[in-house]
Structure prediction request, 134 residues.
Amino acid sequence: MSNDVIFSFHHIGLACKKLETEIRSHEMLGYKKESTIFVDKTQKVKGIFMVINHFRVELLEPLDKESPINNYLKKGIRMYHQCFTTRDIEKAIHFLQEQGAILVVKPVEAIAFDQRKIAFLYLRTQMLIELIEE
Ligand code: NI
Prediction:
């Protein structure tokens, strides 16, 4: 790990066909709602955070046909990103790019995080990573 770029785990993102069905399914497993349902028109998603013990998932339903989540659902992929908070998002992006990551969503304010900046990158392993600025 380089100098002072530190990543803290925040959540795993799950692609969902139907948010309400998925909320009930996670409640069955013991998850509790951590937020109300949010709509992010920039990312074209409707979502909610749920927690169990110290683990957090983000359930995400596509807002429309253009939503990138549709691509994962079509392939049967459910867990599609992991998210970390970091102090300086630009610095973290630069660090990951140096390791061969590709920036797919440039830093943009996110409604789910009180307008804090988020960004998405693909690591060389094709793992999709979301960053949230602390
Ligand atoms: Ni996320």
